[in-house]
């Protein structure tokens, strides 16, 4: 068990960062700041480029420098530390993972790569375990309902992942590292732009022996003492051509292959379990896209994208089951600048999904036509954002959602935000069509959310606080009914059903400060997610989660540490205890283009149980070498 003092440190340190930052801000009344002329920009909040500081929505940007220098073990780790997502994973790296954004289910968050919606339509989630940090340029996270712009499943928010894009002269980067548990990772990338062409390509390979994913004496008897490791290879490429200024044509492709072991059981005719087979997930994901973006005149910018996402899983021991999702997506989006600071976004999006596999012989093709409009306007110190979308789906009918938000600059550095919106989560193919479980008449979940936020920023410091409340009805879950009252006749093991309602409330705090060569950053999340019918907490949601990072970079040396605290959470019939993880890192730039790196993950060797009966890795040391042709 982690010492209580260690568990309390992240919250105390985070609050110590937030309080001195916010208090002086409240006293400011219009003083100017030394704002950097190059403000970071994001897309996810409005579907068009806008400065991050102008976003009315609660948007978190994880930039390229943070991804390269933050000492993250995975995409999930980066999201948890920076954006406050709660992560559930059935074991260590490479194992299946879930993500709970603002306390909603994994299926209630939209995940996109370069504008392409990705993930399994049977499970209703993206496979972060198949992604590598090496080919990612940056990540944008919109926290809060966004169905008014993105349609189904944006109840908790949207995660937009952007791969590398070519800019400037030719640049080559490479990285290789080895670690405990026979782990290794390597990647190489090339980017650049010349004569109207921009190009980027990357290739990475990661592997680890791991540990047994399941703990001894698990509830279902799936424990096998063998190690459950993984191998993952990811390739990505983007090519663009700009024949004249303001018009770009591009193509992109990403493929990931994941081979991960896990513990399971096969059963004979008498239902006796056999845990000895080598159970594996063979997952292949592909995204290909062609796009065009053109400035037709000073008022009208149009974007077109045609994309295909494939998610193919073969899973099992002596016998493999196959689940495949094919998703075709067409998006046409138009941004109209009515005047300075006034913009309207109009678009249409069509998605066609099919699934294949031994159990989905009768599942029909599902199509969704979405029509959306967004407005962004500035009125002196005030800003307004609005969205409205109508989705027409062949499986579950028509749903209209929207959002309305505004902000007001109390001073040059302090901004008050308020938003309200509606959202919905679509039933997955499993919910609708899985034999003996799915029910075709299941209704989508529907949410209503309000939030209030306060943002402050100066040249070297920033802080924000957001309070939110989200009511979700028609929660899709499992019903044990065998009487025919809820489940169809003949469903002897129960079925999927709209079983409950949920009330999700929370507070998110972020703070950052730079003192010369010292950079401090913290996130604090408090969450109260409950079933409104029973009053019970929703499973696997921690009541609080904190992360504090400190990095010191005096010249060619860099040292850093991150302390992450996860609160206790219910999981089926038992509660999982709180735990804290301490990660350490250091680097030495011994030449302008070369850097030696080392990390010590889980430095206190904490016994982590991310999900009931599963275990993560213990202490792990990494040593690696990184090269950047343009220099660090």
TrEMBL record:
Record domain TonB-dependent receptor plug: where: 52-158
Location, primary (coarse class): membrane
Domain annotation TonB-dependent receptor-like beta-barrel: ranges: 190-598
Pfam families registered for this protein in UniProt: Plug, TonB_dep_Rec_b-barrel
Alphabetically ordered keywords of this record: Cell outer membrane, Ion transport, Membrane, Receptor, Signal, TonB box, Transmembrane, Transmembrane beta strand, Transport
Signal peptide: 1-27
CDD domains named in the record: ligand_gated_channel
Entry membrane topology: Multi-pass membrane protein
Compartment annotation: Cell outer membrane
Entry-linked PROSITE patterns: TONB_DEPENDENT_REC_3
SUPFAM superfamilies, alphabetized: Porins (SSF56935)
Cross-referenced InterPro entries: Beta-barrel_TonB, Beta-barrel_TonB_sf, Plug_dom, Plug_dom_sf, TonB-dep_rcpt-like
Family listed: Belongs to the TonB-dependent receptor family.
Entry protein name: Vitamin B12 transporter
Higher taxonomy: Bacteria, Pseudomonadati, Pseudomonadota, Betaproteobacteria, Burkholderiales
């Amino acid at each position: 068990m982690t010492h209580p003092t260690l568990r309390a440190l992240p919250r105390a340190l985070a609050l110590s960062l937030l309080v001195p930052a916010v208090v002086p801000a409240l006293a400011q009344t219009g003083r100017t700041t030394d704002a950097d002329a190059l403000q970071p920009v994001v897309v996810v909040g409005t579907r068009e480029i806008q400065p991050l500081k102008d976003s009315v929505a609660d948007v978190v940007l994880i930039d390229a420098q943070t991804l390269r220098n933050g000492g993250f073990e995975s995409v999930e780790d980066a999201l948890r530390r920076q954006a406050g997502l709660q992560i559930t994973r059935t074991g260590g790296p490479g194992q299946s993972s879930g993500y709970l954004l603002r306390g909603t289910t994994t299926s209630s968050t939209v995940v996109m790569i370069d504008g392409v919606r990705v993930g399994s339509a049977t499970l209703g989630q993206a496979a972060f375990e198949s992604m590598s940090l090496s080919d990612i340029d940056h990540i944008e996270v919109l926290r809060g309902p966004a169905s008014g712009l993105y349609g189904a499943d944006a109840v908790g928010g949207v995660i937009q992942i952007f791969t590398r894009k070519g800019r400037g002269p030719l640049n080559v980067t490479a990285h290789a590292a080895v670690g405990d548990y026979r782990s290794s990772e390597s990647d190489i990338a090339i980017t650049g732009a010349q004569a109207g062409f921009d190009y980027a390509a990357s290739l990475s390979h990661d592997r680890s022996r791991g540990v047994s994913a399941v703990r001894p004496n698990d509830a279902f008897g799936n424990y096998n003492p063998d190690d459950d490791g993984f191998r993952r290879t990811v390739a990505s490429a983007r090519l663009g051509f700009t024949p004249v200024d303001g018009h770009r044509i591009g193509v992109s492709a990403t493929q990931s292959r994941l081979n991960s072991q896990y513990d399971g059981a096969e059963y004979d005719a008498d239902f006796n379990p056999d845990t000895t087979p080598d159970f594996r997930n063979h997952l292949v994901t592909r995204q290909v896209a062609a796009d065009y973006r053109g400035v037709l005149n000073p008022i009208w910018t149009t974007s077109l994208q045609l994309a295909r996402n494939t998610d193919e899983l073969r899973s099992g021991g002596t016998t493999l089951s196959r689940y495949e999702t094919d998703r075709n997506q067409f998006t046409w989006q138009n941004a109209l600048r009515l005047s300075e600071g006034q913009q309207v976004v109009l678009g249409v999006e069509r998605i066609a999904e099919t699934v294949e596999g031994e159990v989905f012989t009768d599942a029909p093709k599902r199509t969704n036509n979405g029509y959306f409009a967004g407005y962004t306007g500035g009125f002196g110190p005030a800003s307004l954002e609005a969205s409205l979308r109508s989705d027409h789906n062949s499986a579950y009918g028509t749903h209209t959602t929207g959002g309305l938000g505004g902000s007001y600059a109390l001073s040059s550095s302090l901004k008050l935000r308020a938003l309200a919106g509606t959202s919905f989560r679509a039933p997955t193919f499993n919910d609708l069509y899985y034999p003996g479980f799915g029910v075709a008449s299941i209704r989508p979940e529907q949410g209503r959310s309000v939030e209030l936020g306060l943002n402050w920023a100066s040249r070297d410091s920033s802080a924000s606080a957001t309070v939110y409340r989200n009511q979700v009805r028609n929660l899709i879950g499992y019903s044990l009914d065998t009487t025919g009252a809820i489940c169809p006749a003949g469903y002897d093991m129960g079925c999927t059903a709209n079983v409950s309602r949920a009330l999700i409330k929370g507070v998110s705090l972020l703070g950052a400060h730079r003192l010369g060569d010292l950079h401090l950053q913290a996130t604090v999340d408090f969450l109260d997610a409950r079933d409104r019918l029973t009053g019970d907490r929703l499973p696997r949601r921690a009541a609080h989660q904190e992360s504090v990072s400190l990095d010191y970079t005096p010249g060619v040396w860099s040292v850093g540490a991150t302390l992450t605290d996860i609160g206790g959470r219910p999981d089926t019939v038992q509660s999982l205890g709180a735990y804290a993880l301490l990660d350490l890192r250091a680097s030495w730039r011994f030449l302008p283009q070369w850097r030696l790196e080392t990390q010590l993950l889980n430095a206190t060797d904490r016994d982590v149980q991310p999900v009931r009966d599963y275990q993560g890795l213990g202490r792990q040391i990494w040593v690696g070498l990184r090269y950047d042709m343009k220099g660090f």
